[in-house]
Write the structure tokens for this entry.
Amino acid sequence: MAGPATGTTPVPEPITAPDPSTRPEGATVTNTETAPSAADASRASRPIYALKNVSKTYKQKNRTVTALTNVDLTIPQGQLVAIQGPTGGGKSTLLQMLGALDRPSAGSVLLGEQDVAKLGDRALTDLRATEIGFVFQSFNLIPTLTALENVETAFAGSLANRSRTEIRDRATAALREVGLGERLDHLPAELSGGQQQRVAIARALVKNPSVLLADEPTGALDEATRDEIMGLIEKQWKERGLTVVIVTHDSWVARRAERRLHIKQGQVREV
Ligand SMILES: Nc1ncnc2c1ncn2[C@@H]1O[C@H](COP(=O)(O)OP(=O)(O)O)[C@@H](O)[C@H]1O
Ligand SMILES: [Mg+2]
């Protein structure tokens, strides 16, 4: 794992925030069909996430592990946030709360106007399917499927009632957007690490979610590829008005974010 601040990499250019009004569809978690109105101006600054007094504990055989303690956190729509902190500090647990993968033990996690803490399993699945894209350090591609087929898996489950043609067209367009239009039929093993992460980003974004959550997205990549992948994530962030949350050990990556959070022993602070 690359340590923090190598000292050789210049501080990145400041990034301008995207205009949330340019997001093509589903610009907010609620009221996606509403016509533009006077409410849009305030919606742009409305938080996409509001966490209040969130705690998460895991029960093991004879002890309880506390992963998050009384976390209060608001994330405005369209923000690019980096999360750093020591191993075991609670970074992945927080990302799971933001990604509606799990419910908090206490407190509320509002995504738009929906409280992840109060939704049933089916509703959480639907929320994830429509609003959230995930990217992981290890790419998590299915090795027996081509790049195109991997991206198409995003439409499994609740969104499967689309035509084969539409799914194929959207997956193809998503792969073109990440620069892999010539690699549609390649298996993951036939692609470089950077190309595999591009496929994973296409899979995460093909449904046009509101939020992109990335857990160490550049952790397995060399420096040049890391820079390419961060460039790609930033481009998608700007063009789509996405909210992006990146967990990273890499200070170079964190410095590219608009906002940096540090999590240690389950507690979040601004950097
Ligand atoms: N499924 C789980 N069961 C039990 N303990 C867990 C589980 N997931 C995480 N933990 C514990 O919660 C704490 C925070 O973990 P995690 O969120 O994975 O931290 P990080 O991603 O910062 O390394 C750690 O003590 C970890 O061992
Ligand atoms: Mg982790």
